[in-house]
Sequence to fold (141 residues):
Amino acid sequence: MGSFQSAAEFREVIDRTFEFMSTDPEMGPKLRDAETPQRFEFPDLDLVVNITFAPAVTDGQNLRWEWSDDVPWQPEVEMTMDSDVANRYFQGRENIAMAVARRRIKTSGNIKKALALAPITKPVFAKYKAMVEADYPHLVE
Fold:
């Protein structure tokens, strides 16, 4: 099983992943239009990231995110998972609904709204997998 070498590496990989989603001409506008602010906590790395829609598209970005809880928006959905669960998810190897049922992902807030985003983000799986195969082969599942 692939594991991140550090919290810094995890941030780098997830920043690149959010960048894919934010700037993708299909995913980005749909995620922005969904207007679903989310908070993700990764306790194994002691990290938290808040992500929301950009109020206006700037520099091709449809989303904005901060690695902090000090953000000017409130999350509608909160998810807590270890970094290896996130890695499996972005490789298309972890089903969110099953991970929630098995408590690999703990959730609160409007989970139905969050699950509605899953089909929108499916195109990121191939991009993520190609990125880890090329740049982070130790993460390949």
Observations:
- The chain has six helices and five strands.
- The first helix runs from residue 7 to 23.
- The radius of gyration is 14 Å.
